[in-house]
Amino acid sequence: MLGVPTITITDTAVTAVYSPSYLPVAECILNRCNAMDAYCDAIFENGFWLNGNLFDCDLLARTNISGGVLAAIASSMNLPSGFCWRSKNNYNVPITGTELVELGMAIMDIIHLCSRIVVS
Hints:
The chain is of the alpha+beta class. 48% of the residues lie in helices and 18% in strands. The chain has helices at residues 25-46, 59-74, 97-116, and strands at 5-9, 14-18, 48-50, 53-55, 84-86, 92-94. It is rod-shaped and about 90 Å long.
């Protein structure tokens, strides 16, 4: 980023020397953190696709999916007949215990991605 120029005028030339202007380190860090937060918020707001279905990825959905995965594991992956998980588009998607764990793993992948993201 160019700063304010220092202009020198002589009989033969006009020169402008730019000295860089930098943001304070704390402001740079805050800007980077805000950009990362916005990027992650967008990921969480948009949801994610799994097996052709769009699922929610907000905090409530992540909490519910975590609980569902624990229930699936506790029941030895034998969920009740006709068990469904609601998609982001409000469709009931039939799902098995194994698929519910897969859904939980997809959520964990998204959380891991977001925790490691570097905005450039």
